[in-house]
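Researcher: Please translate sequence to structure tokens.
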Amino acid sequence: MNKLTSKLPDNPGVYIFRGPKREILYIGKATSLKSRVASYFRRDLIATRGPILLGMVETAKSVDHIETDSVLEALILEAHLIKKHLPPYNTKEKDNKSFNYVVITKEDFPRIITMRGREIETDASNIKYSFGPFPQGSVLREALNIVRKIFPFRDKCKPKEGKPCFNAQIGLCPGVCAGTISKTEYAKTIRRIKLFFEGKKKTLISGLEREMKTAAKNLKFEEANRIKKMIFALNHIHDVALLKAGFESRIKNDEGYRIEAYDVAHISGTNVVGVMVVTEGGEPKKSDYRKFKIRTSKNDDNASLFEMLERRFNHSEWPMPKLIVVDGGKAQVNTAEKALKAWGIAIPVVGVVKDEHHRAREIIGDTKSRTTHERAILLANSEAHRFAIGFHRQLRGKIR
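Model: Translation complete:
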């Protein structure tokens, strides 16, 4: 193995090719620094990576590296260092305005969103910070999902509109929409996210540790415990989804996992309708949504659900789901299980129980499914409710 790679660790991190005068030529990320850098010295480099990087390797005189605790941090540190140093060979390889950036908007309650390079140029006045480029959009979305679980942020909802958005209900928005977080407190979240995307995790953790000690000293034990959980999450970032094939594959619990969610809508038993919505890979698959005008029951949601499932399973040509989600409690789950049993079908069922404001309170039913696919279940249920209400309003409008 080339002397430039012999001392590199078999860990995630960022590698930096330097020229004769220690100038930075190229910055890259790796799941394994040793294996990744070694790949630049294979005979087939020009075929696999192209003539630009072949020229870079021939010019390079040394390789530095920065180990990271996770692949996610390598991804983010690479983007930050490229933006900071503008290495010539990165510019040649990645000068593409269609690449993605993480953007923090210039608002009282900033949004964290992704934008293309060309969009940033045309909307610069509304952007406070941007981080990137990230050539692979799917990997960036995966990274943001991980970050958002540690630091919930706003992306779409409107501040103080009075009710929690879907992401607030599942803990991914801090409640900007419901007015449950102050501007000052939310600004702390934004500063933490900024530090993370600048590759300054150690600085971020040090600051959090000071905040935790201060909170505990002031007897704010709930706040101290919340910060402690953030520190633990940062020190144990789970980024298996970014590990495979050098960041090129996505691994998700919900990938290829088809969920069908059902809901019924009516007013006092009139214009009774039902809907089926589908998610696959944790995303809505609107081409498979279906509408049902309920024929038999007039004011019995369980009977309507049974009819809908019976009609659905008459369509053997439709793909079979791996999980069924119903809107309601034990009675609705029992009804769905009864319908499936009548057809001799073994599919797990869960129910989403709502509070008096029709917000998801808990998921009941199949334990494994509700633990593994919680986010996808809540998304499917929310989509079913939205679709059912829309269909019902459409039907009432036609009757009028």
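Researcher: Any highlights?
Model: Confidence is low (pLDDT under 50) at residues 240-254.
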